[in-house]
UniProtKB/TrEMBL annotation:
Protein name according to UniProt: RNA polymerase subunit sigma-24
Native species: Coraliomargarita sinensis
Keywords: Sigma factor, Transcription, Transcription regulation
GO MF annotations, alphabetized: DNA binding; sigma factor activity
SUPFAM superfamilies per the UniProt record, alphabetical: Sigma2 domain of RNA polymerase sigma factors, Sigma3 and sigma4 domains of RNA polymerase sigma factors
Database matches in PANTHER family: RNA POLYMERASE ECF-TYPE SIGMA FACTO, RNA POLYMERASE SIGMA FACTOR
Domain RNA polymerase sigma-70 region: 43-111
The RNA polymerase sigma factor 70 region 4 type domain, residue ranges: 149-201
UniProt xrefs under CDD domains: Sigma70_r4
Length: 210
């Protein structure tokens, strides 16, 4: 669902165009903050599939992803009065979704949570993992599909914070800086977690790949 028509016409004079997606979202947010709660549906429609995709890749469960997506938007609606537009709405809602999901995962996996603090990092090629995570690239076929399934299983073995950066970067295609803003870390931390996560994935998939 596009929000550009009505929002652009009502908020931004034609001579001020073009406006960015961030501007359009901020205009809708301001409508909601002014009491037009129905305008929030525009944001739900715009970002629901993306949020669901992120959460599904983090949980590997459609029912959980559906519930957590709904919870994410409920939290966003309840907090939208405090949103001041210092970041994009896109970043803000992603952050809520990721944090909500990480809290859920920590509770669900508490008994089988694995600490990776003592795992020895050894530099190795990321070519295999990059190939496995290339779900949106041209390389397709039965082998890749099978490997994708194995990768998804391996993803669920990562800690929530490592799984998050893999999902946001390798699957959602977000830049390190965007992920850092969403996870409230630094780009360096994101790169470190991503590197570490890829090594873990390679380790989990080693038997299958050799």
């Amino acid at each position: 669902m596009s929000t550009s028509g009505s929002v652009t016409e009502s908020i931004f004079p034609a001579q001020d165009a073009p406006v960015t997606d961030r501007d359009l979202d901020w205009a809708v947010v301001q409508k909601v903050q002014a009491g037009n709660v129905g305008a929030f549906d525009q944001l739900v429609q715009k970002y629901r599939e993306q949020i669901f995709s992120v959460i599904y890749n983090m949980t590997s469960n459609r029912e959980d992803a559906s519930d957590l997506t709904q919870e994410t938007f409920i939290k966003a609606f309840q907090a939208i009065g405090r949103f001041r537009g210092k970041s994009s709405f896109f970043t803000w809602i992603y952050r809520i979704g990721v944090n909500t999901t990480m809290t859920f995962l920590k509770k669900r996996n508490r008994r089988r949570y694995i600490s990776y603090e003592n795992i020895n990092e050894e530099a190795s090629s990321s070519e295999i993992v990059e190939r496995l995570t290339a779900s949106n690239r041209s390389e397709k076929g039965a082998l890749v599909s099978e490997l994708q399934e194995k990768l998804n299983d391996a993803l669920q073995k990562l800690s929530p914070k490592h799984r998050t950066v893999v999902v946001l970067h390798e699957i959602e295609g977000l830049e390190h800086a965007e992920i850092a803003e969403i996870t409230q870390t630094s780009p360096g931390t994101v790169r470190s977690r991503l590197h570490y996560a890829k090594q873990q994935l390679q380790s989990y998939l080693q038997d299958y790949l050799t």
